[in-house]
What we know:
Helix content: 55-70%
Number of strands: 3
CATH topology: Arc Repressor Mutant, subunit A
CATH architecture: Orthogonal Bundle
Strand order of the largest sheet: 1-3-2
Shape: globular
Strand content: 15-25%
Structural class: alpha+beta
Low-confidence stretches: none
Amino acid sequence: MEGVQDIGETAGKVWNLLQRNGKASLPTVERGVQSPKSVVHMAIGWLAREGKVELRQDKRTIELWLRDS
């Protein structure tokens, strides 16, 4: 199990990736961040809970992007 610090650092990587690229699929984020999938998923949850990302599922694809602040 990863620590809260690892999840927070990964959340920052996810945020930066979305800031650079805009909307991205979940697999794209998982590959782009280069952290264990479970940590990426926890980081996305962290960002979603803070209201920083939006998520949408379209059939089998999950997309996410930064919320307008």
